[in-house]
Amino acid sequence: xxxxxxxxxxxxxxxxxxxxxxxxxxxxxxxxxxxxxxxxxxxxxxxxxxxxxxxxxxxxxxxxxxxxxxxxxxxxxxxxxxxxxxxxxxxxxxxxxxxxxxxxxxxxxxxxxxxxxxxxxxxxxxxxxxxxxxxxxxxxxxxxxxxxxxxxxxxxxxxxxxxxxxxxxxxxxxxxxxxxxxxxxxxxxxxxxxxxxxxxxxxxxxxxxxxxxxxxxxxxxxxxxxxxxxxxxxxxxxxxxxxxxxxxxxxxxxxxxxxxx
Amino acid sequence: xxxxxxxxxxxxxxxxxxxxxxxxxxxxxxxxxxxxxxxxxxxxxxxxxxxxxxxxxxxxxxxxxxxxxxxxxxxxxxxxxxxxxxxxxxxxxxxxxxxxxxxxxxxxxxxxxxxxxxxxxxxxxxxxxxxxxxxxxxxxxxxxxxxxxxxxxxxxxxxxxxxxxxxxxxxxxxxxxxxxxxxxxxxxxxxxxxxxxxxxxxxxxxxxxxxxxxxxxxxxxxxxxxxxxxxxxxxxxxxxxxxxxxxxxxxxxxxxxxxxxxxxxxxxxxxxxxxxxxxxxxxxxxxxxxxxxxxxxxxxxxxxxxxxxxxxxxxxxxxxxxxxxxxxxxxxxxxxxxxxxxxxxxxxxxxxxxxxxxxxxxxxxxxxxxxxxxxxxxxxxxxxxxxxxxxxxxxxxxxxxxxxxxxxxxxxxxxxxxxxxxxxxxxxxxxxxxxxxxxxxxxxxxxxxxxxxxxxxxxxxxxxxxxxxxxxxxxxxxxxxxxxxxxxxxxxxxxxxxxxxxxxxxxxxxxxxxxxxxxxxxxxxxxxxxxxxxxxxxxxxxxxxxxxxxxxxxxxxxxxxxxxxxxxxxxxxxxxxxxxxxxxxxxxxxxxxxxxxxxxxxxxxxxxxxxxxxxxxxxxxxxxxxxxxxxxxxxxxxxxxxxx
Lengths: 261, 644
Prior knowledge:
The structure holds 2 protein chains of 2 kinds.
Chain A: E1 11-19, E2 28-37, H1 43-56, E3 79-80, E4 83-84, E5 106-110, E6 119-121, E7 124-125, H2 128-135, H3 157-167, H4 174-178, H5 185-197, H6 205-218, H7 229-233, H8 241-255
Parallel strand pairs in A: 1-5
Antiparallel strand pairs in A: 1-2, 3-4, 3-5, 6-7
Helix pairs in contact in A: 2-6, 3-5, 5-6, 5-8, 6-8
Chain B: H1 15-22, H2 28-31, E1 35-39, H3 43-55, E2 58-62, E3 80-81, H4 93-103, H5 110-130, E4 155-156, H6 162-179, E5 183-186, E6 189-197, E7 200-208, E8 214-218, E9 221-224, H7 245-252, E10 257-258, E11 263-269, E12 292-296, H8 299-306, E13 320-321, H9 323-327, H10 337-349, E14 361-364, H11 366-392, E15 401-410, E16 413-414, E17 427-429, H12 447-468, H13 480-499, H14 505-520, H15 526-546, H16 558-582, H17 606-609, E18 611-616, E19 625-630
Parallel strand pairs in B: 1-2, 1-9, 2-5, 9-17
Antiparallel strand pairs in B: 3-4, 6-7, 7-8, 10-16, 10-18, 11-15, 12-13, 12-14, 14-15, 18-19
């Protein structure tokens, strides 16, 4: 082993993991022991160890979503010890490392809990509601070709930076999981803000916010009560300010709507 | 067989315009009578699906992720090249073309590369119009930076998350077409075979990863945008799901596989920390703009470092060997990826590597931190520094990063002609899935460019030419070819579930990865490759006798998914070894130890190997047949790459 911290000792842990066969069955918590876990392992590598053990014993491994394992694809989504993506702020589950835990710890691992995110199996949930919200208006309606030269649309650096910050949302759903109302306001506001800030987004500014909010409500997400857990648990630091922008955009759109639909 | 790439004649700068005029068009009213399948929703797939739907075709888009936005394009950090010359520093379409052909060590097809450079400028316009928040200057115009291997600043970027922003742009365009009903989106659907009718691609077979349902999908043409195969090495910077299955299934149905041994090893990755390691993390190449690469001057000092007797910050300036700056004064730390990687390996082989494993070199930011302050550095690289600290528990603001090369990108892929059509009519391959534009080595910030060029600006024209020659009547979805392909897919799944052996898919995958990295990685020899071939054959035999998969097909079964992907990697691995053995030269990412000069630089053999090696599947456990596409260089003079 050639870890960055050669003195760190391996850990033995108790895991309490949510197991559920599919979305039509009831689930329950099952206890597992994992041994000799290196502090340099990522949380998902620790689950890999568990799954390889289960498989060798002929048991079904724990299903969970993951892919890039570098914090950008937004696939991983574990609710660890009661917190979305676990104890470390500003971190996706895949970037959480076992050095944040101690030998002998008991760790509870659950899927995102929200009506709009039904469980597929074990820790994997269905987040297609997010895709449908984007489909409702999270875009600028330009076809390929026939667009102006990129530098014909000057944008003040401060605006571009603010739009970028909103655009970094990875669509993981931690905001929904962290919210006691299972509201998707932070997710929706990030896209609405990005496009409302930029000149390219002005033409569809009003219809966009109205349609995305309507779809959000239709999907069964809860209302926002300004608690702020979403922003506190967001792994990429999407600011609560975006929800203020969203509210303003929505009110302005409703007051002066040109949405004929 | 000599392959015909269907390159249009005429001067290089006029080929694409001429071709666009010569291709057949589909009448606007007829476009809705054609169905096109696009597999993969990364940059190449999402851009193609959106653009084809905008033109009026009916598109079915497939992804094995839960959302198109998860595709691995999202992880690209550094940027996207375009020949805009916004910086007035001498860039041009011709220069981007020239740099790409040279950077690819003269193993790319000139005409494709020129077209890529031409449409690069349109990509930036398109992305900005979509609302992609590229970095800007205070005057409000777009910012650029120079990027590995280029002497002009032509790289557009969005902090260290350019791939994410470009993919979300393409995803938004795709989502808009889904809302319009022009794209039918199939998520959590993995393509397991392509359906061929009368020699033409007419559909695919998929498995729904949640329910296990096997589905048949018919269309007039199929586009594969399914990415690269770097995960054949098990450890790579690729996302865990990246695999070769779609491309390999197509290969076994008749699509030639080109230059499989051309693998890019990226010089700046976080070193391996233990046996449990599941993937490697890239630190963007943009860091080499400001970071300086070094190792201790002496083996003795490196040994003391590794043993923890001295700290890196204690090593004096005069005891540091900035080996890239020393060996390549003109390019310094910005030499192309293959050169930087090989040199890092060489330092470690000499015993001057650092970190407790000795398999790492330093990437040092102390100078830039002194010059512009930690805040300034954070503005540029904040997210990368934070990621590094999370993974290693070391603060790169206070001590140099440790880096080591890792598998990152595969230049090889399905052979395509100038129209991006494979050797199966009606089957196209775009983005990393094809082999076309990067030769033996890809330049930094060129993968995003190629994926979007193919999807937004090439395939919408070239697929029309094919469809215009196809009758606008529905594909016969009852054709027996569909049932046959489905039966084969089902039989394979049943086989995986019935072996009931002792070794897991990951176990086999790791074993394969070890063989590939050892014998077909950064340095290769004829002897090693011969050995690897036998080892892979042995491992493959064991796989089919001793694989363990539990659970059933009709359920979310991630072990079953892995088994299918590993089975295909076990076949691809052998082909890569064959290809590397056949190519008796060193070029780009392919370094054969027998072919180097006195200074250890790659020795290319243009007389005998200036060709694309396109392999043809001849049946299970039969040697594949080598077909050649000779490469002609009419515009860029063949010369030895030198970055001194």
